[in-house]
Amino acid sequence: LTTQIFIENLRQYRTLSITATRTALDILNYFRDNETISDSESWTLFEVINEYGLERPIRDWEYVATVIGNWEPNKQNALGFKNAVPPMFGSLHLEVKKNKWQKRHFFIRDGTVYHCKDAKVKIKLKSPTKFIFALKSQDKVAMFENPDDYIRYLCADHLDKMKDWVLSLRAAKVIFIK
Q: Which parts of the chain are coiled coil (predicted)?
């Protein structure tokens, strides 16, 4: 399987052959060895799901061919690199039903994303802010009885918080626990 991997933006990319056993860390190390990216530990490989407007950090141990294999056919999805990974906790808005949002407290502990209800729960018909991101299943959407369970949308209060959360998810073994 040969694919393009974008580096920080859509203008710069490299073409790479992906085998069934090649992990995200293998690809990161390949690009570090070729001096395409720096030796910094903060580089992350993302899958870009254009249909949903999502970027998901691929964990170091994930097989990239499996990630690509779970993409829906004939969609314009891609792989790309970004830089930086901070630790995270704090309030986010969770879409609990279509267009219904609740403010929850989220944190990452022991490689898992947790959330609990906040004392002041607010239900809204539209996203409370424009800083929306999502947790997407690694399975195909066809595996879900309810397609709304394929992706869980979250909303941060500020752009910086959203970026911190998205990049911190790289280090977590993302199991969504209520």
A: none
Q: How far is CA 107 from the centre of its chain?
A: 15
CA distance 109 to 52: 27
Per-domain boundaries in the chain: 2-83, 89-177
User: Which residues sit opposite 89 in a β-bridge?
Assistant: 107
Q: With a cut of 50, say whether residue 64 has pLDDT above it.
A: yes
| Residue closest to 172 by CA, chosen among 53, 56, 23, 40 | 56
Question: Kind and range of the H or E element at 45?
Answer: strand 43-49
The single-letter code of the amino acid at 28 is: L
Model-wide pTM > 0.85: no
Residues 6+ apart with CB under 8 A from 48: 6, 54, 55, 77, 78, 79, 80
- At 122, the pLDDT band (50, 70, 90 cuts) reads very low
CATH class of 2-83: alpha beta
CB 46 within 8 A of CB 80: yes
